[in-house]
Amino acid sequence: MKLTKRRITLLTGIPLSIFFLWLALKGVNFTKALALIKKANYRFVIVTAAVVIADFSMRSLRWRILLAPIKLIKYIELLSTVFISFMANNVLPLRAGEVIRIFLIGQKEEISKTSAVGTIIIERMMDIFAILSLSTLVFMSHPFPNYIRSMWIIFLAVLVGLIVILYGLMYFRNKTLYLLNRFILRFLPDKLENKIENLINDFINGLEILKKGHHLFLSIVISIGVWSINALAFYFVAQGLGLTQITYTGAILVMTIVTLGISLPSSPGFVGVYEAAGIGACLLLGVEKSRAAAFIMLIHAVQILTILAVGMFFLTREHLSLIQVEKEAESGV
């Protein structure tokens, strides 16, 4: 059997999920954790589900702004596409949701692949900016070991570097591309160099969209709003479980580390990597491991179930089959 990139990612992701799930739950007192979940104040959990919906509603609004210079699309259509794509990430392997998202917006609204990919890359850049900006609040209010602060300084340096590159690509495109090629890209293997060059070209197309529409500032503000709301989901579940160690800034820390964790290859739904990153973050905040496990399992479950419920609603509304959409997306994107 030929090991394609997709198969390699799948074969890597599932063992990693199993390993990190074992690592996360090692030493957890499940009786204690389940008892804490049973005693939770579920009014906070219900509010958390509403917060998750608000989070994705903001993401859809941001995408509408990014796409507006190409085509003004009805908000409900983008909301549907976003929920279906994120639902796909939770039930299908290999993060199929992004491919499905590009396919659906192209099929429904005749948006080119290049333009769709460009806006998604811009979104990811804005997400990095927003998360690192919010994490500044955490490091201003919590005493952390020096190695944690050193990691934060590195991430902050990355943020500054990304801003410089972003500005250069927007206003000094040719010069910036020349510098990237001379000092970075030419030292990479040919395949990787070509892949990065293609990503940069898609990214530049996204930047052109922003320049034409003058939506950069508004999109950044919404991005910060998206991740501020996302942190609220962690905060409300923590309050529902009586975890007083997790303040709002503590919730930002947990969210940030979970977001970094789920960037690793994993099974559908980010099982294992989510739990390991989340429990590890809680331990930094002084939460006992069994209580941390209860918290992370509950917030993960609420997020997945909410996304599945709303995603299924939109699939039914549009008379779509997720498996069929995945097949068409893989052959059409």
Features:
333 residues; mainly alpha; 14 helices
| Number of discrete helical segments | 14
Number of domains: 1
For the termini, the CA-CA separation is 24 Å
- SS-based structural class? mainly alpha
Alpha carbon gyration radius = 20 Å
Strand segment tally: 0
Largest sheet: none
Oligomer: single chain
Quick structural gist:
With 333 residues, this protein is an all-alpha fold. Helix content is 80%, strand content 0%.
Itemize the secondary structure elements and their pairings.
Elements: H1 5-25, H2 30-38, H3 42-67, H4 75-91, H5 96-109, H6 113-141, H7 146-171, H8 173-183, H9 190-213, H10 216-240, H11 248-261, H12 273-284, H13 289-317, H14 322-332
Helix pairs in contact: 1-12, 2-13, 3-4, 3-6, 3-10, 3-13, 4-5, 4-13, 5-14, 6-7, 6-9, 6-10, 6-11, 7-8, 10-11, 11-12, 12-13
Protein architecture, described:
The protein has 333 residues and is mostly helical. The chain has one domain. Helices cover 80% and strands 0% of the residues. The protein contains 14 helices and no strands. Helix 3 (42-67) packs across helix 6 (113-141) and helix 3 packs antiparallel against helix 10 (216-240). The longest helix has 29 residues, at 113-141. The two termini are 24 Å apart.
